[in-house]
Amino acid sequence: MPEKISLSKKNMQIDTEIIKKPLLSDKTVGLINNNQYSFLVTKNSNKPEIKAAIEKLFNVKIKKVNTISQPIKQRRIGRFIGNQPRFKKAIVTLEANQKIQLFPEE
Asked: How far apart are CA 65 and CA 3, in angstroms?
């Protein structure tokens, strides 16, 4: 039975607003071999919204979504002290036969 996702109209966002960009680092490129992809997402998005947005944008089936909220870090530039912007990271595990094309093939 398919999972029902209820999104209130007040909190509903466009899919491209939820998913900011794919996160590419040494670790996340290694996770692609395990069929896991990392994305930067908005701070107030939840797992069902992330799942629905990625399934709609990339036309894939998602097995699991893990999210990580980064802590606030202080940053000093000269005598000025501020905070780095917080962000939320989503690690998405796809079904066995699914794939997302992040890099264009030539």
From this structure: 14
